[in-house]
């Protein structure tokens, strides 16, 4: 029996990340090699022509799983009936702009897109916010789409998670697939805390702790954390453009694991609505280690947290609390 197509929305679809993301979705990277998709692409009116060009390319690529494309500048049309929404569109910070300026622009974008999803998306639509400030944009979206369950609104910290895996694999010169269970705690910003306290590496003689094999705590507590935190800026410096390919790939990983489940014994990092686990203030969208089964994520419980980690986790929570206050002040 052929599966029914899943409707996937990508906002900001004519942009860099969107351009990298839509072919991955159409090829089955996000939802699996046997899952047909209907792509809904939304962008702002000035990008309408470019968006149409992306649609032409999708047609030209003749993806067997792609059952149709909606390319539009109308939020209602874009959101109608969607099962998965990947919110890539947002207002980027430009030179000389204050955080409050960026925040107020994004608050108004996410407020209006939330209303369109609220009214027109399929029941139980899963939402992933990619545009920065991702955690706080997701919180605003949650605020204005009250009928979408809180657990269905997430933000992308899988890119940071993947960056952490990549750094460990490069350091030890091993396959990245042999590293697992790093954690990104907190905000998708330079205060995030990449934590290897519980991470392991597959070796011929079984799973070994990352800390033991790296055997350089100064590096793990210093340069490693800084590299992961600052990786986005390093890529902008090198490419003169922000991370697009890796962000698109991480968005696919995030949704795929959420929908199809995480492998046994493995967790991933997702920005989710805090229930107070690990003494993180409830009501923030905060990155936790999660496992996924049957389309639901669950925060991994009972991990030990040392004093070094506690400080880092609290610092990033504090930043998110400030961002939340700033966003709410833009609403009034």
From TrEMBL:
<dbReference type="GO" id="GO:0006107">
    <property type="term" value="P:oxaloacetate metabolic process"/>
</dbReference>
<feature type="binding site">
    <location>
        <position position="43"/>
    </location>
    <ligand>
        <name>NAD(+)</name>
    </ligand>
</feature>
<keyword id="KW-0816">Tricarboxylic acid cycle</keyword>
<dbReference type="InterPro" id="IPR011274">
    <property type="entry name" value="Malate_DH_NAD-dep_euk"/>
</dbReference>
<keyword id="KW-0520">NAD</keyword>
<comment type="similarity">
    <text>Belongs to the LDH/MDH superfamily. MDH type 2 family.</text>
</comment>
<dbReference type="GO" id="GO:0030060">
    <property type="term" value="F:L-malate dehydrogenase (NAD+) activity"/>
</dbReference>
<dbReference type="InterPro" id="IPR010945">
    <property type="entry name" value="Malate_DH_type2"/>
</dbReference>
<dbReference type="InterPro" id="IPR001557">
    <property type="entry name" value="L-lactate/malate_DH"/>
</dbReference>
<keyword id="KW-0560">Oxidoreductase</keyword>
<feature type="binding site">
    <location>
        <position position="106"/>
    </location>
    <ligand>
        <name>NAD(+)</name>
    </ligand>
</feature>
<feature type="binding site">
    <location>
        <begin position="12"/>
        <end position="18"/>
    </location>
    <ligand>
        <name>NAD(+)</name>
    </ligand>
</feature>
<dbReference type="GO" id="GO:0006099">
    <property type="term" value="P:tricarboxylic acid cycle"/>
</dbReference>
<dbReference type="GO" id="GO:0006108">
    <property type="term" value="P:malate metabolic process"/>
</dbReference>
<protein>
    <recommendedName>
        <fullName>Malate dehydrogenase</fullName>
        <ecNumber>1.1.1.37</ecNumber>
    </recommendedName>
</protein>
<feature type="domain" description="Lactate/malate dehydrogenase C-terminal">
    <location>
        <begin position="157"/>
        <end position="325"/>
    </location>
</feature>
<dbReference type="InterPro" id="IPR022383">
    <property type="entry name" value="Lactate/malate_DH_C"/>
</dbReference>
<feature type="binding site">
    <location>
        <position position="93"/>
    </location>
    <ligand>
        <name>substrate</name>
    </ligand>
</feature>
<feature type="binding site">
    <location>
        <position position="132"/>
    </location>
    <ligand>
        <name>substrate</name>
    </ligand>
</feature>
<feature type="binding site">
    <location>
        <position position="99"/>
    </location>
    <ligand>
        <name>substrate</name>
    </ligand>
</feature>
<feature type="binding site">
    <location>
        <begin position="130"/>
        <end position="132"/>
    </location>
    <ligand>
        <name>NAD(+)</name>
    </ligand>
</feature>
<dbReference type="InterPro" id="IPR036291">
    <property type="entry name" value="NAD(P)-bd_dom_sf"/>
</dbReference>
<feature type="binding site">
    <location>
        <position position="163"/>
    </location>
    <ligand>
        <name>substrate</name>
    </ligand>
</feature>
<feature type="domain" description="Lactate/malate dehydrogenase N-terminal">
    <location>
        <begin position="6"/>
        <end position="153"/>
    </location>
</feature>
<dbReference type="InterPro" id="IPR001252">
    <property type="entry name" value="Malate_DH_AS"/>
</dbReference>
<dbReference type="InterPro" id="IPR001236">
    <property type="entry name" value="Lactate/malate_DH_N"/>
</dbReference>
<dbReference type="Pfam" id="PF02866">
    <property type="entry name" value="Ldh_1_C"/>
</dbReference>
<dbReference type="InterPro" id="IPR015955">
    <property type="entry name" value="Lactate_DH/Glyco_Ohase_4_C"/>
</dbReference>
<dbReference type="Pfam" id="PF00056">
    <property type="entry name" value="Ldh_1_N"/>
</dbReference>
<feature type="active site" description="Proton acceptor">
    <location>
        <position position="188"/>
    </location>
</feature>
